[in-house]
Amino acid sequence: MDCMFSGEETSNSEHIIPRWMQRRFNLANQTYVIPNGTTIRYRFAKIPVASEHNSEFGKIEQRIADGNASLQDFYLWAFKIHVGFIYRNSSLKVDVTAPSSPTFWTVKDFGQEVWLFRQLYSVWSKGGVISPEPFGTVLRMKALTPTPGFDFIHNMQSGTLFFQFGSEAVFVVLYDLGIGAHSNIAEQFEYHRGFIASQPTDEQQEKGFLAQRVWACESAYFLFRALRGFSFVKSDGSFHGVPSLGRPSARPSDPIELAHFSRSFGLQLEKFGEGGVGHLYKLLVPGNNKDLP
To answer: What per-residue confidence (pLDDT) applies to 77?
Structure first.
């Protein structure tokens, strides 16, 4: 297949979730859910990457591993994971038991997203200017779980990703040009902290985990409903996103859409709240979070 960074043919491959992260959080034999509802181990999630681009992008991954990454680093890294799963899932069958079953999709189905990622990577690798900086929303917060752990959520539909790395939570929105960072969703995250602290000690970990997933789901769904297209101005050494005129307003919540949307966050919508608020969820796989040793 072609390199996800450049489109050139390559026989090299790279882990979508990097090996240092798999080692740090004991993920090699852990699994994540793919679109047909089955699971695949993190260590088998690889995609085609030309070695020169893999080495170049490794500078970002090293900064994340060392704890001195910028928000733009986190944004580009999350975008790489997003495109990586586009590539990975394009090789997977809808029905794994039937060799003639079609694949989920082709990479060409996501042509605009792959093109944007390659443009941003190209400008970054040449030391150029990308604006806004970060190009989307990146929020870094103290996790709501009292015990450090790992969690990963990827919603392909909205282009949002949520991570828990130990005691830190990171939420990334790829296509909103930073609108989420200027909304009140970070304050809503903090709202849950006092409630969790008031719960019995033996329930705080599970409730913190659930609260993070519900918050990530509802924040992503709100921004998805408010999403608008954007224009851009590019040159060989710069890429500038130009937002649409006017403040976007979110379209109303839809119970069927939200029920489908929430499943990629490991949630089942139990009750759709009146006026789009007060929804109730339960975990599809209780205790799915992985505490650190």
So the answer is: 97
